């Protein structure tokens, strides 16, 4: 029997007002019930918004360096509890321990980065056009922020949104994915242990259609930050548009790695394996297309197939395993549907494509690493986000064709090119349509101090992480101080 978990609203741990709950189970072993979580509804979400609104009145006045001190303590506590958090994450999300430790590390890095920002948050001073007048611009907090986060990075993604929101003086409601509520709960416990005051961070569990929608609708929420599917992102953006509410979206991807004929082939294979099958292919940044020059296509494909077949699949808590399960039954059904679509479209299934039959995989949502070759750029498996361990290999004959194929999808999050030709590398940096481009590295592994996000249907132009995130979580205010002691009229010709 699992434990009973709660929402956090205004400093109190509360069940849903309806007392309803939902189950959280281990995707590697569905007999393992992790716990029961509040199946919250609009009334719980609205209560959390009211608490955040109340707390904003005092939190916005806490000096940013003081808010930073709390975030330094959060960083220290995340270090202290790193292994515990990694194990919680693996148990509820499935990815292997090495990866969940990396996920927690990303949160630690994000804590210290944002803690330091408490002593920067720079504005500008500039000369005024009139004598005895001073002009400057400062960042001010926005207010109540709703953070709606996915299950694939159960700690790192909430930290990317929450730490910048807090350091800027906002208060938040975190609505974590239903598949990974325990990591979020432990995270909020740690925030409270570090000294975050009541109401500054609220946590509401439940379904996006209920809790997420209620937060997006609530007039007292000034900003929505969402990471998830493009379909849901469009709905959120439409609703926020109606209310002129700020919204930051990080949505899907169909990321590609190019391998040119001059590349270090072994390095490119290593990169593609990690990019495609790391996190069981469940990253927004995952490599789902490999665009390979025909001169090296056979060598690259054969090597990838051989390596993919050796990947050890199983429970991520067992250190010898290299790839955990998919997140849930619906995810596995989706992947299976795309395997059929790929076959029907005429792509050649080179390896995988099925549920593993080994005994250790019997109770979870496992899936074999899968590679299709002879994929054409316009096939659905080369256009649509699958979010599983499925790699589509597309052959090309020139650099120009490679770039055109890479750019030929609706998305533009991450991208990569393996080449030893500096001219090609720089042309790729210029011509690839994506928010992130790697030269001789895989499509995954973005660092928290650089802007993160993408072009086209991947988002709405915002970049979380980096220094750009502060433009999401603050308003600019321009301030003029006239110390002339008389009325001075700007833009009037005084001569
Ligand atoms: C995601 O999959 O939404 O760049 C985030 C990476 C990680 C973050 C991925 N640092 O692969």
Offer a quick outline of the entry.
The protein is an alpha/beta fold and 495 residues long.
Structure, described:
The protein is α/β, with parallel strands linked by helices and 495 residues long. It has two domains: 3-251 and 459-479, Aldehyde Dehydrogenase, Chain A, domain 1; 255-439, Aldehyde Dehydrogenase, Chain A, domain 2, CATH 3.40.309. Helices cover 38% and strands 22% of the residues. The chain has helices spanning 42-59, 64-80, 82-93, 97-117, 156-167, 181-194, 208-217, 230-242, 265-277, 294-310, 329-345, 399-407, 422-431, 469-472; strands at 3-4, 7-9, 12-14, 21-26, 29-38, 124-127, 133-141, 144-148, 171-175, 201-203, 223-227, 246-250, 255-259, 287-293, 348-351, 370-373, 390-396, 411-412, 414-418, 436-439, 455-456, 474-482. Strands 15-16-17-14-13-19-20 form a seven-stranded mixed sheet, sandwiched between helices. Strand 4 (21-26) and strand 5 form a beta hairpin. Helix 2 packs antiparallel against helix 4 (97-117), helix 3 (82-93) crosses helix 4 (97-117) and helix 4 (97-117) runs parallel beside helix 5 (156-167). 2-aminohexanedioic acid binds next to loops.
Q: Would you give the CATH topology of the largest domain?
A: Aldehyde Dehydrogenase, Chain A, domain 1
Give start-end ranges of low-pLDDT stretches: none
Q: CATH architecture of the largest domain, please?
A: 3-Layer(aba) Sandwich
Structural class of the helices, strands and pairings?
alpha/beta
Number of helices: 14
CATH superfamily of the largest domain: Aldehyde Dehydrogenase, Chain A, domain 1
Ligand identities = 2-aminohexanedioic acid
Shape descriptor reads globular
Mean pLDDT over the residues = 97
The number of domains is 2
| Strands ordered across the widest β-sheet | 15-16-17-14-13-19-20
Helical proportion? Answer: 25-40%
The profile of the biggest β sheet is: 7 strands, mixed
Q: Could you tell me the strand content as a percent range?
A: 15-25%
Count of strand segments: 22
Q: Quick one: CATH class of the largest domain? A: Alpha Beta
Rg on CA atoms, Å: 24 Å
């Amino acid at each position: 029997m699992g434990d009973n978990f709660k929402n956090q609203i205004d400093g109190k741990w509360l069940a849903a007002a309806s007392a309803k709950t939902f189950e959280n189970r281990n995707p590697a072993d569905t007999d393992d019930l992790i716990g029961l979580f509040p199946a919250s509804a609009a009334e719980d979400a609205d209560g959390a918004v009211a608490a955040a609104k109340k707390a904003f009145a005092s939190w916005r006045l806490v000096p940013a360096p003081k808010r930073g001190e709390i975030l330094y303590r959060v960083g220290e506590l995340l270090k202290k509890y790193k292994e515990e958090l990694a194990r919680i994450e693996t148990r509820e999300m499935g990815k292997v321990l090495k990866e969940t430790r990396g996920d927690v590390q990303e949160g630690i890095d994000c804590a210290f980065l944002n803690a330091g920002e408490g002593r920067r948050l720079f504005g500008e001073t500039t000369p005024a056009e009139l004598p005895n007048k001073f002009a400057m611009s400062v960042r001010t907090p926005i207010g109540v922020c709703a953070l709606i986060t996915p299950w694939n990075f159960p700690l790192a993604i909430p930290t990317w949104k929450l730490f910048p929101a807090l350091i800027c003086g906002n208060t938040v409601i975190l609505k974590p994915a239903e598949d990974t509520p325990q990591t979020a709960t432990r995270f909020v416990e740690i925030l409270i242990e570090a000294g975050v005051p009541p109401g500054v961070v609220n946590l509401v569990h439940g379904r996006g259609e209920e809790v997420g929608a209620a937060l997006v609708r609530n007039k007292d929420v000034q900003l929505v930050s969402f990471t998830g599917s493009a379909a849901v992102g469009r709905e959120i953006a439409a609703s926020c548009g109606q209310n002129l509410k700020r919204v930051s979206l990080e949505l899907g991807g169909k990321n590609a790695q190019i391998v040119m004929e001059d590349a270090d082939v072994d390095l490119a294979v290593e990169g593609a394996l990690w990019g495609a099958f790391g996190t069981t292919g469940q990253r927004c940044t995952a490599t789902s297309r490999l665009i390979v020059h025909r001169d090296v296509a056979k060598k690259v494909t054969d090597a990838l197939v051989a390596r993919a077949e050796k990947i050890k699949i199983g429970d991520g808590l067992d250190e010898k395993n290299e790839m955990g399960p998919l997140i849930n039954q619906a995810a596995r059904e989706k992947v299976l549907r795309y395997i059929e679509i790929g076959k029907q479209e005429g792509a050649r299934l080179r390896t995988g494509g099925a549920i593993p039959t080994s005994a250790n995989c019997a109770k979870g949502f496992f899936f074999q690493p899968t590679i299709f070759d002879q994929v054409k750029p316009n096939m659905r498996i080369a256009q649509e986000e699958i979010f599983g361990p499925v790699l589509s290999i597309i052959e090309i004959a020139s650099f120009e064709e490679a770039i055109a194929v890479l750019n030929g999808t609706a998305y533009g999050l991450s991208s990569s090119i393996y080449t030893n030709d500096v001219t090609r590398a720089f042309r790729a940096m210029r011509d690839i349509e994506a928010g992130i481009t790697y030269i001789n590295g895989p499509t995954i592994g973005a660092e928290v101090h650089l802007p993160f996000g993408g072009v086209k249907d991947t988002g709405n132009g915002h970049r979380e992480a980096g220094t750009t995130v502060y433009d999401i979580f603050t308003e600019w205010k321009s301030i003029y101080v006239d110390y002339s002691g008389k009325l001075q009229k700007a833009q009037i010709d005084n001569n």
